[in-house]
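Supplementary Note 2. Why include the ligand at all?

Several targets in our set were suspected to adopt different conformations when bound, so apo predictions alone were not considered sufficient. For every target with a known small-molecule partner we therefore ran a joint prediction. The input for S-adenosylmethionine is given below.
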Amino acid sequence: MKVITPPIKSQGIKTKLVPWIKEILPSKEGTWIEPFLGTGVVAFNMNYKKAILNDTNPHIILLYKEIQDGIITPQIVRSYLEKEGDKLKTAGDNGYDHFRYIRDRFNEKPNSLDFIFLSRAGFNGMMRFNKKGQWNIPFCKKPERFAQAYITKIVNQVTRVSHVIKLEWEFYNKQFSEIIPLAKKGDIIYCDPPYYGRYVDYYNGWTEEDEELLFNQLTKTEAKFILSTWHHNVYRENEMIGRFWNNFNIITKDHFYHSGGKIENRRSIVEALVCNFDLDEEIAKHNHGIKKKPKQLSIFDLEKSQYAQSSSTIYKDGKFGS
Ligand SMILES: C[S@@+](CC[C@H](N)C(=O)[O-])C[C@H]1O[C@@H](n2cnc3c(N)ncnc32)[C@H](O)[C@@H]1O
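The joint prediction is reproduced in token form.
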């Protein structure tokens, strides 16, 4: 499958997981609802006519709305990157002076073109905002960053995204908890929240209470949902799996994150997809097996599981047991 990649990058980008998510999609009908949009790579590859896309990060939402509205076009991006790329090449401190200039301009008055620049000239394709909500990733230290071939690559990404974003797609800049209740029977909600206990910045604070609220909302929804989370790495298990998500079906896959500041975050991690619908047995064969929990939860189960201690699940030799 050829994956459509977005013009912005982030350490949590799910490009590698797109075919896997697509493989388990229950249907192409209804509305695709993504409360934690991030770079948008998952939504862009799912081919839904209708979508509700949301993120608390206003820069992401503004960029995609402006592409949808034709305010940001491939041609505008090309001219901008050629102009700023030229300045980067000749700027003092090996280009860093111009990177700082764009960063300060963006932090003073955010705009989508500077956002693309920072995302593509920042260290290791990372996206992070400090406590004041300002861009907080240093320069990749490549003054020649915006060579013609790289500009063309970014421009092509904008072109493809402008083709897949449909007029019917709605963009929001709200809390996830305001978006999930919009889902109706027949819709599909894909959730990729910040991973609990792994990474925090201005737009990615994530507490146990957030996870519990998400669990409560996804338990009540009439729509189908798929949740991305991490299952375990070499150091530890994700305690939220035992606490909440074992109530649903889970499949897992090894994944290696190439970018990320902390060394722990750059190691291999076992990714999980949690869903509230039954999965094909065929899928189980190449996904470490399925941990099944097909029955509908009763209110009693729900209350129990919300306060239950973690870890009734044992993950061993690629199989689940209890
Ligand atoms: C792990 S990233 C999503 C990555 C995305 N799936 C991708 O492939 O690029 C989580 C996203 O959720 C957003 N976010 C964090 N807390 C949120 C909240 N309470 N409500 C909505 N969005 C939130 C962050 O700004 C971030 O973009």
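The domain at 15-56+174-321 is CATH 3.40.50.150 (Rossmann fold). The chain has two domains: 15-56+174-321, 70-164. Comparable summaries for the other entries are listed in the accompanying table.
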